[in-house]
């Protein structure tokens, strides 16, 4: 069975992006094993502590390298991806072996897709940045079919993500396409 690691860009337990990830998990069902990467203990990127990598970084790398694909669900903070997610990607994109001229990282060649829940722009800038990072980090980005949700005032007021039938259809399409992309 294929394994997909979900990375939620918001560390908040009741985040809208975590809700969307749970919806995606329900759509995938038993067709793949889903895990959520806990990166709350990953320290700030610092080359002084890069080799050997801190334990939290090693654990995150191991979980990523054991996966067949990554699905990132990210909000947008100030027209960019959240700092914690960027920090995680910085660590994961660093060479596994110090001085490796090929710069092989935990992300090299890893299939990835993105979704985003945000304000009026539906995290569009964050998703764009993630696509740019994926290219730079030599990941296999599944372009197109990204699920983008613009939050309603009601969602903000109730702290609940409401998906329209159109939203659900887009998420289902993305899930089906990603399962195919990773070869399930």
TrEMBL record:
GO terms for cellular component: cytosol. SUPFAM superfamilies: Flavoproteins. Pfam families: FMN_red. GO terms for molecular function: FMN binding; oxidoreductase activity. Residues 3-150 form the NADPH-dependent FMN reductase-like domain. InterPro entries: Flavoprotein-like_sf, FMN_Rdtase-like_dom, NAD(P)H-dep_reductase. PANTHER family: CHROMATE REDUCTASE, NAD(P)H-DEPENDENT FMN REDUCTASE LOT6. This is NAD(P)H-dependent oxidoreductase. It comes from Candidatus Ornithospirochaeta stercoripullorum. The lineage of its organism: Bacteria, Pseudomonadati, Spirochaetota, Spirochaetia, Spirochaetales.
